Amino acid sequence: MKNRSAHLGTAPIPKLLLEQAVPASIGILVMSIYGIVDTIFVGRFIGALGIGAITVVWPITLLISSIGMAIGIGGASIISRALGADNEDKAQRTFGNQVVLTLVLAISAMLLCSFYIEDVLILYGAKGDLLPYAIEYFQIIIYGIPFLAFAMMSNNVIRSEGAARVAMFTMITPAVLNIVLDPILIIYFEMGMRGAAWATTIGYIGSAGFAIWYFASGRSELRLTRQNLRLDFPIVKEIFSLGGVTLARQGTISVLYIILNNTLYAYGGELSISIYGIITRFMMIANFPVLGVTQGFLPIAGFNYGAEKWGRVRETIRIAILSGTGLAILLFAIIMIFTPSLVSVFTTDEDLLQQSTPALRASFLAMPLICVQLIGSAYFQAIGKALPALLLTLSKQGFFLIPLILILPNYWGIYGVWFAFPIADVLAAVVTFLFLRRAMRKL
Q: What is d(CA 143, CA 139) in angstroms, rounded to the nearest whole number?
């Protein structure tokens, strides 16, 4: 196992970051394109209410599947540091525990949610004419979520052993399947929201299937054995201590969506929820290179911290922030210049077009600062420091954005919602920078 991961402690940092970040960025980009293509087909062949329904269902899907993401990130941090310390046994036991935890918790959450579908959707803002569309979509999507949770867990584990290209394919697989199936099911078979839901669900199953094939084929250096499937409570505690940061973030985002969707409905009706659906799709594709840099940063920082190579840790932080910020500035300029043309790809609805353009520009005003926050919180996860990672992860959505969304619309109406995003980004970036600067001085 050490042979594959050893280069994380010896190869030049720029080369390593490129090697790890490019596949991650490609995977995130393809996933983002899938989300955009899905929204385009729904917007053009079902309508604005279809976009609104997907917007309501998405955070519920994300919350349940983030169980796998949290377990994956928490376990991947342990695995990376175990590899850096040449502790193969701990890495193997961690992987086995991750598999058991992901399957048990994701299936339990799916079953619980399936009994209260309508109540859950109403809580997340599926009101008025949106509700029947959301029910039709969610009744199918919910059974694919455990597969997505397993794929998200596996993606982080695969990356932790240095196989960034393989991890990329776990993200590309559902996107490709969805892009292929959307026109077939939505247009050719005229299945409407059910077609969009089945295309997405089949994509989730395909992603999990690819991950299972990889681990079972012998290509992975991690192995599932009966002994490793037995829960090791010190490892479980460490997984949730670190992965709990991700779960807390997704839980906070879920609460944010409840507040946000209900606020949007109160100040702008169903149309405002559809506008935010378009904005989130732009956030996905605009942030893909920065998220890719962050994903690439994690195993490098974790391995070198475990190997006590402090100079390489500092260099990794510096290069990751500089490269990520440069990419964010470039994409910020593209979005600000070409906003009307970009929005028109999703819909021909004149009201939706007219209101989406200023909302999108306002929401993205602080985009160049997001890399500082992402790398800062990721660093503390990578080195196993759960508390600062949790605080920094929650800073934007929990400490700043939710209060701003509750306060600003009282003075600025619907624009108070859109301007809450850049204000929260600025405040979170400042706090993260102060934490990270202090931590780097201690290395």
A: 8
Tokens representing residue 99 in the block: 């598999």
- Measure Cα distances from 251 to 95, 239, 315, 431 in Å: 24, 17, 32, 21
What residue type is 413 in one-letter code?
A: G
pLDDT tens digits along 405-443:
999 999 999 999 999 999 999 999 999 999 999 998 887
HSE, CB side, 13 Å, CA atoms: give it for residue 348. 4
308, 283, 236: which is closest to 90 by C-alpha?
A: 236
Query: Mind listing the pLDDT tens digit for each residue in 381-401?
Result: 888 887 888 888 889 989 999
Alpha helices in 46-161 (DSSP H): 48-84, 88-114, 117-123, 130-141, 145-160
Q: Is 47 left (phi over 0), alpha (psi -120 to 50) or beta?
A: left
pTM of the predicted protein model: 0.81
Q: What is the DSSP letter of 188?
A: I
Please identify which residue in the block is written with the tokens 């053009």.
44
95 in Cβ contact with 228 (< 8 Å): yes
